Amino acid sequence: MILTRKRRILAALLLSVVLLTTACTPKAPGRFDQVQQESSQQKSGQAVAKNATQGEKFNEFFPSAQAGYQSVYTQEKKGFAEAKLKKDGKDLAMLSISDTTSIPTAAAKFSNSTKKIGGYPAVEQGKTQTAVLVGKYQVKVLSRSPSFTASDRANWISKFNLDGLAKLK
Fold first, then answer.
1. Which among 168, 164, 114, 121 has a CA at the least distance from the CA of 140?
2. Which CATH class is domain 55-167?
3. pLDDT per residue over 121-159, tens digit each?
4. Secretion signal: which residues (predicted)?
5. Cβ(34)–Cβ(66) below 8 Å
6. With contact defined as beta carbons under 8 Å apart, do 108 and 127 qualify?
7. Where are the chain's structural domains?
């Protein structure tokens, strides 16, 4: 009886030692820990430049209401504003204005552009996107419906107040 009691005490003591040593051992770093630490310490490469235009200032340059069409603003943040273009309740396209100050490479794609919309350099991006560069601002229309063609996108870009946007500081 004494022997079993000593075994129980010894087992409990060993279990306590094992739990204590494993609980106090430092955790090995995970495969993403170093990258997370580096990215959170970076000052460059932040998502939005400090001098980017507030998204709310872009709203007045979006196309005004057209017969049969509805614009639903979906996002507005520093350096960016976006609206869905709908007709009969269906999404046709996404309309957006972004400040390229935050993404300098966004403006570079317009340097070799031979196409113009409203007097501003334009580019086709893939089969669903058309964009123009107005000063430091990119105006983009993305098709969300197969029936919304490149000519529809160019037409809707021309409905933006591009000249007014060019004067925005």
1. 121
2. alpha beta
3. 999 999 999 999 999 999 999 999 999 999 999 999 999
4. 1-23
5. no
6. no
7. 55-167
